[in-house]
Amino acid sequence: MSTVYFTDLRTTPSRNLLDKLVNLMNATRFDRKIVENDLVAIKVHFGELGNTAYLRPVFLRRIAKRLREAGAKPFLTDTNTLYKGSRSDTVSHLTTAIHNGFGYSSVECPIVIADGLKGASGTSVPIAGEILKETHIAKEIAVADALVAVTHFKAHELTGFGGCLKNLGMGCATREGKLVQHSTVSPRVNVETCRGCKLCTGYCPAEAISMVSKKASIDGKKCIGCGECILICPFNAIEVEWNESPDIFQKKMIEYALGALTGKKKKSLFINFVVQVSPACDCYPNSDAPIVRDIGILASYDPVAIDAASCDMVNNEASLPCTAIGQTLHKGEDKWRALFPEIDWNIQLDHAEKIGLGTRKYILKKV
Fold first, then answer.
1. What pLDDT, on a 0 to 100 scale, did the predictor assign at position 250?
2. Three-state SS for 28?
3. Model-level pTM greater than 0.85?
4. Whole-angstrom Cα distance, residue 252 to residue 272?
5. Strands 238-239 and 188-189
6. Could you tell me which CATH number the domain at 187-239 has?
7. pLDDT of the residue at 239
């Protein structure tokens, strides 16, 4: 069994939640794994503009401070999105992060967008996956000496829940890696939206885009799946084919988590905040009402165990009224299936266990 450390949200004037967060980190003894001047990537989600469920910057500030006290050089990091939004390129991403409160004056820690200006800066990491033999991991995460994945635990329409494993698998991938997980084919051109500007034809590194009847056309045989044409189109005419089945998508995501941890699994710590458990990802420009009460913060060296424990804690709560669940669920009832009946969320945990990322069996130690 793996150990999962847990602290609830009860506080006193002499012991606030930030102090309890530090105590939780101390319980893991992660400082003993840090070597002086280690570059430590703190993988976090900065939230889409309009979203309010992302983690408060003050928590990241305290985590970074504790790492500096251990002799590390921490930096906050995330990767650019596959879809067009407020985080689809580094300039927009940094602007969004600052807008959402992650400026240096707030977190006392630099921000590095790990996959470069347009999401193409990555490293090919070979893995022994069931589906994939290669992953495309954001370069600055791949070359970091250590990793602390700090995750807002919530629901997700493709995976049932979005936890530490998703933060690693999807969140550490380049745009090409995200496309591999989401799709089995090249992007497609919406001919009704395309204005024939030819910008994509000159930009495509594989020369896979040509003009047909004054509209862009993508040759799937030439396309290398980098996904950069999606970003470069000024009219949003190039779209992802979101056609991968949820089951295969989850397995690919888990295998990307394996790639993200390659070379640093023994120097990686995982922290889940089971608070404001929203019914959708923080990638949305809004955040709906939480489905259960705020529960607490967990930490572990096992990404499978911490997600399993977080899932159990949510499912062991009664649902809150007036939420996306739309009904009253009692303790022990499956909150993820109530939101997304077609998604078997156990697949990601089972596959992660199968390929050696960790175990679903855990011991919970309260701090």
1. 96
2. helix
3. yes
4. 22
5. antiparallel
6. 3.30.70.20
7. 86
